[in-house]
C-alpha cells in the first residue's frame, strides 16, 4: 500500500516539476525566437535609410554583413530599382505587397527569408528581403537542445522525486507500523482473558442453575464468542500486507471443499457450485479459505435465497464469483463496504463485526487480486475476485 502511495507521489512530484520546466523552456524558446526576429527586422529597418540605399544601388553592399535584397517602387507601381533574387516567386511577392502586413516570412529553395515593406519619401513603396536561414537553423538547434534538456531533466526529476516521495512516506510508514503493532499486541493480550472467560462460562453451564441464570450464561457465552471472533479479525487486519507462505495451489479444489463444508450450515437453501477443474494460482490457502468464507457468510446473512459460486479462467485471469439474491447494496456504498466496521443500513441482517469485507480486501490485495461488486437493491449482489494467472 505504501509503495503505491510512494509511486503516486513520485508521479505527482515529477509531473509538477516537469510541467514547470516545460513552461520555462517554452518561455525561453519563444523569447529567444522573438528577440532574433526583432533583431532581423531592426536590421532591415536600419537598411531602409535612403543614403544607404544609394550606396547599395552603386554596388557598395559590403557595408552590410549579410547582403539584403530590396526593390524600390515608384508611386505609379512601376519598379524603380530591384535586386531581388530572380527565383523569388512573383506570386509570393505580389501577395505580400497587397497584404496589410508589414513583415512576412517566406520559404523557397529550402531557404528562409524575411520580407519587410514601407512607404518611401516619394510615396512609393520599398520592399526589403533578408535571408534568415541561419536564424531559423539556430532556432531548430535550440529546439533540439531544449528537447534534450527536457528528456534528461525528466529522468533526473523522476529519480529525485522517487527519493523525496520515499522520505515523505516515512512518517506514514512509522505511524502505520505503530498502529499495526498496537492492534496486534492488543489482540494478543485480549485473546487469553477471553479464552479464560469462555472456559469459565462453559464450566458454569455444568452447574445447576435457574432458568434465568442459564439464559444469562448463554448470552454471556454468545457475546464472549463474538468478542473472540472480533479479536481474531483485528489480529488478521494487523497483519495486512504481510501474507503467509505463498505457493502454487489448486484453487478449484479449495473452492469446492470450502463451499461443500459451507453447504451444511444452510437451512432451506441450496448452494449452486460451478467450478472449472485444475485452476492453479499462487497464494496462501488459509487466507484464501478465509476470503471465500467471508463472502459466503455475507451471502447467507443478507439473503434468504439460494447462493451461487462460480470459478472459471479467462485468457488474463482466474475469476471467482459469489452471487446472492438478497437485499443488495446501494451504488453509493460500493466503496464504503470495504471500510472497517462499515455495515450500512442493513446491519440488522447480520451479526458480524463489520470487518469481513475489509479483511477480504486485504487478503485480495496481498494476492494481487481485484474485487468487483455488482448489486441491485432488493435483487441481489455479485462479488467477483480476479486472480492473476500463476
UniProtKB/TrEMBL annotation:
One of its GO terms (molecular function) is phosphorelay sensor kinase activity. Gene3D superfamilies: 1.10.287.130, Histidine kinase-like ATPase, C-terminal domain (3.30.565.10). It is found in: Cell membrane. Its EC number is 2.7.13.3. Residues 185-390 form the Histidine kinase domain. It is a multi-pass membrane protein. It is an enzyme of class 2 (transferase). The chain crosses the membrane at residues 12-36, 142-164. The keyword Ion transport does not apply. It catalyses: ATP + protein L-histidine = ADP + protein N-phospho-L-histidine. SUPFAM superfamilies: ATPase domain of HSP90 chaperone/DNA topoisomerase II/histidine kinase, Homodimeric domain of signal transducing histidine kinase. It holds the Pfam family HATPase_c. This is histidine kinase.
Amino acid at each position: 500500500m505504501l509503495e503505491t502511495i510512494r509511486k503516486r507521489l513520485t508521479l505527482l512530484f515529477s509531473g509538477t516539476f516537469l510541467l514547470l520546466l516545460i513552461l520555462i523552456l517554452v518561455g525561453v524558446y519563444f523569447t529567444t525566437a522573438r528577440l532574433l526576429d526583432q533583431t532581423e527586422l531592426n536590421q532591415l529597418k536600419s537598411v531602409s535609410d535612403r543614403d544607404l540605399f544609394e550606396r547599395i544601388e552603386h554596388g557598395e553592399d559590403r557595408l552590410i554583413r549579410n547582403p539584403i535584397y530590396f526593390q524600390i517602387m515608384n508611386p505609379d507601381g512601376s519598379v524603380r530599382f530591384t535586386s531581388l533574387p530572380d527565383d523569388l516567386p512573383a506570386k509570393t511577392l505580389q501577395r505580400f505587397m497587397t497584404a496589410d502586413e508589414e513583415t512576412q516570412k517566406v520559404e523557397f529553395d529550402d531557404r528562409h527569408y524575411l520580407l519587410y515593406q514601407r512607404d518611401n519619401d516619394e510615396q512609393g513603396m520599398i520592399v526589403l528581403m533578408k535571408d534568415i536561414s541561419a536564424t531559423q537553423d539556430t532556432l531548430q538547434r535550440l529546439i533540439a537542445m531544449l528537447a534534450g534538456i527536457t528528456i534528461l531533466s525528466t529522468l533526473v526529476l523522476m529519480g529525485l522525486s522517487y527519493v523525496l516521495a520515499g522520505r515523505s512516506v516515512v512518517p506514514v510508514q512509522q505511524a502505520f507500523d505503530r498502529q499495526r503493532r498496537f492492534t496486534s499486541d492488543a489482540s494478543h493480550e485480549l485473546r487469553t482473558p477471553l479464552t479464560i472467560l469462555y472456559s469459565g462460562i462453559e464450566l458454569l453451564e455444568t452447574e445447576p442453575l435457574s432458568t434465568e441464570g442459564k439464559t444469562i450464561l448463554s448470552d454471556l457465552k454468545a457475546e464472549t464468542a463474538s468478542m473472540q471472533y472480533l479479536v481474531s479479525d483485528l489480529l488478521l487486519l494487523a497483519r495486512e500486507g504481510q501474507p503467509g507462505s505463498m505457493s502454487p495451489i489448486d484453487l478449484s479444489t479449495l473452492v469446492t471443499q470450502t463451499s461443500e463444508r459451507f453447504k451444511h450450515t444452510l437451512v432451506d437453501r441450496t448452494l449452486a457450485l460451478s467450478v472449472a477443474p485444475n485452476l492453479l494460482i499462487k497464494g496462501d490457502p488459509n487466507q484464501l479459505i478465509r476470503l471465500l468464507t467471508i463472502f459466503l457468510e455475507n451471502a447467507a446473512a443478507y439473503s434468504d435465497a439460494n447462493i451461487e459460486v462460480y470459478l472459471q479462467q479467462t485468457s488474463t485471469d482466474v475469476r471467482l464469483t459469489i452471487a446472492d439474491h438478497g437485499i443488495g447494496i446501494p451504488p453509493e456504498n460500493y466503496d464504503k463496504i470495504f471500510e472497517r466496521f462499515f455495515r450500512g443500513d442493513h446491519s440488522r441482517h447480520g451479526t458480524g463485526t463489520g470487518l469481513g469485507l475489509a479483511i477480504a480486501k486485504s487478503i485480495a490485495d496481498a494476492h494481487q487480486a481485484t474485487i468487483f461488486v455488482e448489486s441491485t437493491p432488493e435483487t441481489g449482489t455479485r462479488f467477483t475476485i480476479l486472480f492473476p494467472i500463476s
